[in-house]
């Protein structure tokens, strides 16, 4: 097998990182606004009563009275904590145009509002507290949204580790199911024992005859009969030992595959935590009015809600399924598996003419073909069987059609092999997403691949490697 290709595959997946995934169920707060908050108004700067009175001279008396009432009466009862409130207060504009916002960090901003203990980050719990104690008005809504953003990131950090731990344990079951340990010691020992017994009987019979001849013993017909029987028994033991079948071991050493997958899952966890940590630090340390700062992450009121966060095990379970799919992909790639399209026709007894055997992975979109096979490259030969292949769907829930469809779409969309779009903070949400499975695909219906198979009778593996460029 071409170990270099699977090593490259693992290196590609080594870059896999888990980003900031916003997974929450929103339950809007039901706080009732005070009478003074019946109409929402933006507050960008605090003005004195004298300044307000001067400005009101250019407006009608009634309008002036309403504005003064709203400006002067400050309520500590917050408006509903929803994205709509955020947008009505125009907090995006407030943050973007905040004085010195192009130089001020989150810590500077919180300190300027007498909230010096408002320290966010992974492992830290920043709490905006109640409105007016000590922060009020627009600033409180901003700190509250940051509090929610910080809580979600801390939850995700823990969920990533939890999910990877579950997958590592599940991979052990996957490997042991697909590559079961076969104990061949009993059959081997029996075969060796029969061979040794036959040899000993032959030697003992020969020695006995030699001794009789030396001593001139006259054993007569009885002696000759016993000697013939001895040699016949020896021959029988020898034939039995030769015919004794020793069970074949698994196609691959399961422990080695398990070690590879678990090693790379550990690297995934490390890189995911690093990526999330760096993203959080970047927001905290960037100017508040920049896209990299809190203006960028809070824009549109995304975190302006009393979000009821899902329990960590529930979030981890969502991450587990897609991570398990990627682990299955790694196992198949480590087996040098690839997809052959049209190498066989769909006229068998399986669904739509696919192969019916449980150790074969094939998919037929319609009767007659083309057939999509998941096969293995073993040297210059093609092996169709994958022992216990049925467990991939029956136990782990990944049907052949899913693996084929996602892999084919990945190669068509990106043009090439081993494509991994999940870098720089991206992560799939389900096993159906782009390139979660990315087995190499070889179309055996056209060009040099078809000619090599049909005219020159080469194995599909050789044709796909030579004319299709597959890294197998």
Automatic annotation (TrEMBL):
Location of the DUF7872 domain: 252-472
The UniProt record lists the keyword Plastid: no
Positions of transmembrane segments: 12-29, 155-182, 224-242
Record's keyword annotation contains Transferase: no
Entry keywords, A to Z: Membrane, Transmembrane, Transmembrane helix
Protein name: DUF7872 domain-containing protein
Organism annotation: Puccinia graminis f. sp. tritici
């Amino acid at each position: 097998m071409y170990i270099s290709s699977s090593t490259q595959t693992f290196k590609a997946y080594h870059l896999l990182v888990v980003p900031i995934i916003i997974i929450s169920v929103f339950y809007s707060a039901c706080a009732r606004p005070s009478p003074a908050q019946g109409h929402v108004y933006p507050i960008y700067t605090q003005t004195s009563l004298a300044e307000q009175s001067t400005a009101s001279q250019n407006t009608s008396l009634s309008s002036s009275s309403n504005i003064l009432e709203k400006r002067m009466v400050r309520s500590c009862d917050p408006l509903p904590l929803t994205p709509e409130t955020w947008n009505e207060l125009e907090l995006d504009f407030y943050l973007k145009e905040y004085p010195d916002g192009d130089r001020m960090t989150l810590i500077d901003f919180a300190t300027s509002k007498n909230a010096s203990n408002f320290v966010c980050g992974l492992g830290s719990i920043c709490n905006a507290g109640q409105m007016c104690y000590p922060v009020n008005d627009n600033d409180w809504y901003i700190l509250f949204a940051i509090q929610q953003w910080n809580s979600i990131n801390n939850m995700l950090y823990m969920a990533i580790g939890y999910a990877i731990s579950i997958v590592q344990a599940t991979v052990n079951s996957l490997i042991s199911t697909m590559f079961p340990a076969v104990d061949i010691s009993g059959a081997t020992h029996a075969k060796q024992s029969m061979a040794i017994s036959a040899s000993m009987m032959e030697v003992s019979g020969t020695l006995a005859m030699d001794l009789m001849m030396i001593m001139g013993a006259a054993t007569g017909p009885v002696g000759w009969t016993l000697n013939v029987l001895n040699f016949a028994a020896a021959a029988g033991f020898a034939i039995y030992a030769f015919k004794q079948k020793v069970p074949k071991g698994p196609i691959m050493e399961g422990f080695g595959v398990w070690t590879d997958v678990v090693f790379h899952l550990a690297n995934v966890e490390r890189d995911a935590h690093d990526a999330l940590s760096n993203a959080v630090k970047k927001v905290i340390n960037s100017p508040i009015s920049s896209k990299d700062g809190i203006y960028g992450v809070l824009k549109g009121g995304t975190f302006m809600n009393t979000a009821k966060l899902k329990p960590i095990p529930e979030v981890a379970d969502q991450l587990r399924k897609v991570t398990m799919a990627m682990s299955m992909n790694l196992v198949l790639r480590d087996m040098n598996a690839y997809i052959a399209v049209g190498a066989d026709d769909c006229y068998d007894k399986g669904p739509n003419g696919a192969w019916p055997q449980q150790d074969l992975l094939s998919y037929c979109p319609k009767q007659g073909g083309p057939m999509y096979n998941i096969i293995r490259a073993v040297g210059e030969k093609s092996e169709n069987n994958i022992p216990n292949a049925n467990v991939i769907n029956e136990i782990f829930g990944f049907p052949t059609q899913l693996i084929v469809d996602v892999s084919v779409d990945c190669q068509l969309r990106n043009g090439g092999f081993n494509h991994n779009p999940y870098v720089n903070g991206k992560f799939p949400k389900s096993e159906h997403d782009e390139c979660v499975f990315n087995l190499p695909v070889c179309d055996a219906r056209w060009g040099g691949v078809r000619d090599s198979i049909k005219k020159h009778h080469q194995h599909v593996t050789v044709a796909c490697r030579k004319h299709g460029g597959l890294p197998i």
